[in-house]
Amino acid sequence: MLPLQQTYAQALPELCVPWRADLPPDPEIVWLNEPLAAELGLDLGRLRGPEGMALLTGQIDGTIAQAYAGHQFGSANPQLGDGRAVLLGELVDTSGRRVDLHLKGSGRTPFARAGDGKAPLGPMLREAVIGEFLHATGVPTTRALAVLTTGERIAPRQGVTPEPGALLVRVAASHLRVGTVQAAAWHHGPEVTGRLVDHVITRHHPSADGPLGLLAAVTGAQAELVAQWMLLGFVHGVMNTDNMALSGEGIDYGPCAFLDVHRDQAVFSSIDRSGRYAYGNQPGIALWNLSRFAEALLPVIDAEDPQHAVDAATEVLEGFEPAYLAARARGLAAKLGVTGGQDEVLALGEDLFVLMEAQSVDHTGFFRALSAGGAEALFADPEPFRAWAARHEALHDPSADGPAARANPLYVPRNVQLDTALRAAHLGDPGPVLTFLDAVSAPFEARPGLAHLEGPEEGGDRFLTFCGT
Ligand code: AMP
Ligand code: MG
User: Fold this and answer.
1) Considering its fold, how many domains does the chain have in total?
2) Which of 22, 82, 100, 242 is catalytic?
3) Is residue 312 part of a domain?
4) Cα 400-401-406 angle, rounded to 5 deg
5) 455 within domain boundaries
6) pTM for the whole structure
7) Active-site annotation holds for 242
8) Which residues are found with C-beta within 5 Å of the ion, ligand 2?
């Protein structure tokens, strides 16, 4: 239906293999993201017809599986890659932006290791919901174009009931990750790494000057991204280097979650036993990942003088913290509706988070209440909050009253409600997830019929998430 391009496969044949998706026995669209389809210039009628179904199920020529490596929970894994996914190809959308169309759940590939190559419906819908919510709140993210069932029943990831097999058609600025550069450096050496760096620069960071410039651009983009996650109470859950995109978009929302109660060391993922990817650790982990990225780049930063390469890369990485703090202060000012110097705003924010944690206050609920009035009622002991509120009042920016409300979403993919909706889909009723998608796509204005998605639910705070793998 479309001539998709494969500029990546042409530039880096060493880092992919031609690969075809399995033929699903009885594919059916569960959700089609119509606004995104329009942005991509795809005709909805054709997309729902035979040609579109061929595209959405990967039954087209020229598809590939991408190789990558990565650090998973701190340990190097040299052989990762699209184990259950294919890159359908690239297209240029109606605004001139080149994006990847990618298919997850499409069967085993040469990178599948012990995996079955399949994806269950629940986690694919979960990824769709998270992507739409983050997009609606202005956070760079991959998005789902469609979720389909395949007609298969696949081995359960948890429990004993076979799950409906699914496909996620994903749109991303690209699927190039820190782990892609690690694979180039570890297995192919400076020539291929240099060629990959050129490709990433052209595609994502055209003003970057060489590998150091790329490191600086990715560092800046990740600082910005993680600052936004933190302010929304988002916990990615599996920030391995293969799940960190070079474009600066968030990617791979397997075990992610949103805070209910504000808790710095909140961990939701069942596989994150040490709490490596706890909420409050995320900025530090982003920098750790960027340091692994820098290491992979060292031979192309300066092959002749390794010490110079290390010094230059270190200087760039030192820019992460100021970039993160500047983004955090900007975001906090918008959420709190205040103006002031960066340090003043940051201190106001840090003190608030300490208070919220001490009194088990809901993260999302607090910021909504602050815009709407009534925040004090959330604190069992109001005294310390009153002292904070006086400082807040002194920095209040009346011109930001509207924007403050727009920085603080009402409908957030909360753990218990999302899980309830995904369970219904698993049992054959997609209705609640479709309602969820609708709610989080316009998360700021209260709408009738969605009250059940507003607040925290019992059990949300100690919720356990699973990778779906
Ligand atoms: P993740 O941490 O979920 O992003 O995935 C880590 C690695 O495991 C990637 O190389 C995936 O392609 C691979 N993987 C995850 N699930 C499966 C599966 N069911 N079959 C094959 N490979 C998988
Ligand atoms: Mg991944």
Assistant:
1) 1
2) 242
3) yes
4) 90
5) no
6) 0.97
7) yes
8) 243, 252
